[in-house]
Amino acid sequence: MFSDKKSFQEAFLKKLEMTYGKSFKESTVQDHYHTLGNMVREYISSDWISTNEIHRSSHTKQVYYLSIEFLLGRLLGQNLLNLGIREVVKEGLSDLNISLENIEEIEVDAGLGNGGLGRLAACFLDSLASLNLPGHGYGIRYKHGLFDQKVVNGFQIELPEQWLRHGNSWEVRKLDQAIEVNFWGEVEMVQEDGKFSFRHVKGEPVSAVPYDIPVIGYKTDTVNTLRLWNAEPSSFPVHKDVMEYKRQTEAVSEFLYPDDTHEDGKILRLKQQYFLVSASLQSIIRAHRNTYQTLTNFHEKVAIHINDTHPVLAIPELMRILLDEEKMEWEDAWHITSNTISYTNHTTLSEALEKWPIDLFQPLLPRVYMIIEEINERFCKELWEVYPGDWQRIENMAILAHGLVKMAHLAIVGSYKVNGVAKIHTDILKEREMKDFYQFYPAKFNNKTNGITHRRWLLKANPQLSSLITEVIGDKWIKQPHSLIKLQEYVEDPSFLQGLKTVKQQRKKLLADIIQEQTGIKIDSHSIFDVQVKRLHAYKRQLLNVLHIMYLYNRLKEDPNFQIVPRTFIFGAKASPGYYYAKKVIKLINSVADVVNHDPQTSPFLKVVFLENYRVSLAEYIFPAADVSEQISTASKEASGTGNMKFMMNGALTLGTMDGANVEISEAVGKDNVFIFGLKAEEVLSYQQNGGYRAYDYYHHDKRIRQVLEQLTNGFLPDTYDLFEPIYDSLLMQNDEYYVLRDFDSYVTAQQKVNEAYRNENKWLQMSATNIAHSGFFSSDRTIEEYASDIWGIHSTKNLLNQSINK
Fold this sequence. Notes:
Oligomer: single chain
Shape: globular
Distance between the termini: 22 Å
């Protein structure tokens, strides 16, 4: 149906009329989108079936990636691109007076994630399929993904996200493969054949119904699967009010990250985590049994990867199945489990390392808790044998301690590999945050620096730059991103640099038009686009950025000799609904924007834009347009970052601390092609361990800092009254936990260097080209190849697929 323009048109019109029972003239853009989506899904169905069949019949080892988030974004454009049929579709629709771009724009982002964690998972799925690797995702089909953000009078307002309002063309519901997941109840111990066994009885069952989404590789026959679980009432009777049961059941998959500031919310989050892992493991085991009729080789044929601590209950759940349902001995079950599961840590923040109160955990998951108790007891005995009498170390490493279940500890103990996501992050884990575990399990720890799928963030998001690159070095880079390094030969080539300048200006003009349409703010597309888009959190230091903007505004107002290249500061960020401090920072950004943008003296040189509802589809316009990539987290706090890679790949220059993957970006391109400032990680960690930092010293000795902080509360920002006192207090009264004031001067200096560098247009373009040339290393293809060989032990099935097709 996609072989040529005419065949596509005929198939499209027929499909539309058959699906909607109306003529083409009566159809809507929504009809066109769903028709095209259904056609694509049907088109790849034979490859989808073949991929699954090859994996089964060849007995190849498969990996299952468990993640509480999958931030997919829009799928239509990427699928058309990966299949190599976009131009045929575009031309065929154009002859029908239909714009493919309009159809793509009507697709709602599948916002099943909060930020980097979920987007990383989506990038990994793309790379697995494009590299012909047998790897699939398992997640939750949230009815409402991350909230839609509205900004009203500068304040964030959260609205329910409605990605399923018009249905989802990409999913296939598979009711026949539904799984029962049990909560609450009690554990019954029985004696069978002289042995004790355990049964979870009187539980409250929930039906997990799978919805499968095809994951299409780039110009390959591999179509892997993302399976998302929907929570529905079980057919089994329950002894409680039917409507209450239905409501509580459906709540499990209703919202991504329900509010956990109260006990009911905490229980719901824990339910989601167990729902994900129990349904996924039962499904994986069922498929394995159908192929091998035994689970004794499970760890040899299956790799299960847990993306952060949210799916860590996979460890005791796999033990439960092997012990209670397979009747294995503990040692055999533990051998299989601890050689099946691997774990990625994504944080050094202690508050992000999940800990669940035992008095909440045990009633909800009684049998799973019993198993965790046993794992903990056996682990502590191991520790005692190595560190006899060292009670403090054992207490610090225990899985159960102080009334809490420590999920990161459980993850390390029950996994065969544990990885960080950037060199510096992994080093901090080994040397500080998880030092005791690293000393005990040195062979488990390894690093896998994050990556991004260049096919979405360069090929799709920036076709102008992609065409320029292909014109210069050929198209090999699309499948082999390390080939981008060939651009290094052209960083001084006038023709290439002129092309790069033209492309960047086109993308800046496009984003400027979007900004004016969405906000009413007219910006200079020739100004420096200085961009910080990411989750709003204190450690990411959007506050440092906005305080610097206030400083620039003050200088422009007070010093007639002060000049800067016109600068547009662009923010995009969502704050967690219960994170009130972060929401005040959003209000601060917008309040500063109101002052700056409406001042005729400064507005020609300075503009501030906050783009509401930051999401994948908006990001695809932002990254190609950026000149400066703000990566200014407090050193040691950002595990890796992936936005830094997307900016780099599109030619923006990193302004950042030596944190996360910024370190490796700096090493790749050289210090002359980035702008580095601020405390080093070891200095931050020293302050935290030894003290010695006094924020008031910087307030008293730097009049720039004193002025901007006083402006938070002295009426400089109209109609804010005492609104920003918590920000003021966090910096002074609470001693500036993330060292914003300590890094302020260094940040101002780095920004001055950005200003001066941009004046030398040719040099800036060379720096930009150098960044693009070295960005291939940060493709998720490289990351996944490392996971596949070093952790999972999986191999490409390309030859097997080709043999199947040839037959």
